[in-house]
Design a protein that fits this description.
Length: 349
């Protein structure tokens, strides 16, 4: 493979993956296709924007004609598909845009790649990046999501991701189209849009704003450092078996309220506040509708088959992440003010 299309590369996980691929594989041309929605931000990729093996293209995965032209222009051999609407709370308010982007957008990419690669799928690959939320919710009983766990999505977001996974698998079963899928747990790290728990709360603690804890804060999430997700994608893309699903996670479950108290401790320490003083900002609010109780990924298959393990202990990852957001206040302020969106809209209109 030579010409690799990464969709959603200006988003949180996508930007980490683009950086890894551009730096690690000078022999590849990396084409980053992104619509630059509110979640896409080219400032996430400033360090690689002039690399000779990198191109940015602004466009919508749902635009079937445009995607066909893109495949022809860049002679795409491989796709790593991350573009999506990704925030559960937004999906509860606006399910249509989730079905449109996550289902129809994925189908538009699949169908284009299939038509473009028709005749020989040799050396071609469509890698679909998905989520553990498709498996539904676990009880607090020590069980894990396996690759064989039955899909049971509850939010419009997870329903749309589950649907896209089904289409990817249907293309494999029906056409012998070369696919791989991974389902990852909650990511954290730099460049995450501050609507998600960790960057939102770091920013609010810094600004002495209330920390809206949904329900009683007892829901459990399984957190993975974003660069470890990117390294797993790289490994699966190159070494994983076609037609297979791989779960990605670091066996790192945290009850929300415990994680929030850890973040408070770390942010207070960095800001020179008395330890734990920001706990007064904790505000219990109405629970998220359909809030999944617990996610926990079993990534033994990925470990045993491909030798992947996460590189970082969680406490170290959280310290790194808190430091990054506090040292990159300009990025945070730009993103929360919407300035970056206006700038790039102007540039790419
Ligand atoms: P994100 O919201 O930060 O980024 C999504 C990117 O997709 C943005 O750059 C956005 O502009 C782009 N995009 C949206 N609609 C588009 C369209 N129609 N055409 C082209 N580009 C479009 O998301 P993220 O958190 O980086 O997640 C990336 C992928 O990984 C998603 O598919 C998500 O489901 C999956 N995932 C995320 C997590 C997580 O914890 N964040 C965990 C597991 C899997
Ligand atoms: O599990 C993988 C998924 O993780 C990804 O597929 C999604 O794209 C990603 O957004 C994430 O989904 P969650 O809903 O788990 O993440 P979020 O950061 O929105 O919330 C994490 C937990 O914190 C969840 O139990 C809800 C809670 N929460 C969240 C916010 C934003 C709060 O209590 N208060 C908040 O303000």
């Amino acid at each position: 493979m030579k010409n690799i299309l990464i969709t959603g590369g200006a988003g949180f996980i996508g930007s980490h993956l683009v950086r890894l691929m551009v730096n690690k594989y000078p022999q590849y041309n990396i084409i980053n296709l992104d619509k630059l929605t509110y979640a896409g931000n080219l400032a996430n990729l400033k360090d690689v924007q002039y690399s000779p093996n990198y191109r940015f293209v602004k466009g919508d995965i749902c635009d079937f004609i445009f995607i066909q032209k893109l495949f022809a222009e860049y002679n795409i051999d491989g796709v790593i598909h991350l573009a999506a609407e990704s925030h559960v709370d937004r999906s509860i308010k606006d399910p249509f845009s989730f079905a449109q982007t996550n289902v129809m957008g994925t189908l538009s990419l699949l169908q284009t790649a299939r038509l473009f690669w028709e005749g020989s799928f040799e050396g071609k690959l469509f890698y679909h990046v998905s989520t553990d939320e498709v498996y539904g919710s676990l009880k607090d009983d020590g069980t894990f999501f396996l690759e064989t766990t039955k899909y049971d999505p509850h939010s419009p977001y997870s329903a749309s991701k589950a649907s896209s996974d089904h289409f990817v698998r249907a293309f494999y079963d029906t056409y012998g189209f070369p696919v791989k899928i991974s389902n990852c747990s909650n990511n954290y790290g730099s460049y995450q849009f501050p609507e998600k728990l960790i960057p939102l709360f770091i920013n609010n603690i810094r600004n002495n704003k209330p920390l809206p804890v949904y329900g009683k804060g007892e829901n459990v999430r399984d957190w993975l450092y974003v660069e470890d997700h990117a390294s797993a994608i790289d490994l699966i893309f190159h070494k994983g078996r076609k037609g297979e699903t791989y779960n990605i996670g670091g066996f790192n479950e945290w009850k929300n309220i415990d994680l929030i108290k850890l973040m408070i401790k770390v942010v207070d320490k960095f800001l020179g506040r008395p330890e734990g003083s920001s706990e007064s900002l904790i505000t219990y609010v109405t629970d998220r509708a359909g809030h999944d109780l617990r996610y926990a990924i079993d990534s033994t298959k990925l470990h045993n088959e491909l030798g992947w393990s996460p590189s970082l202990q969680f406490e170290e990852g959280i310290e790194r992440t808190v430091r990054w957001y506090l040292e990159n206040q300009e990025w945070l302020d730009n993103v929360t003010s919407g300035d970056y969106q206006r700038y790039y809209d102007e540039m790419y209109k």
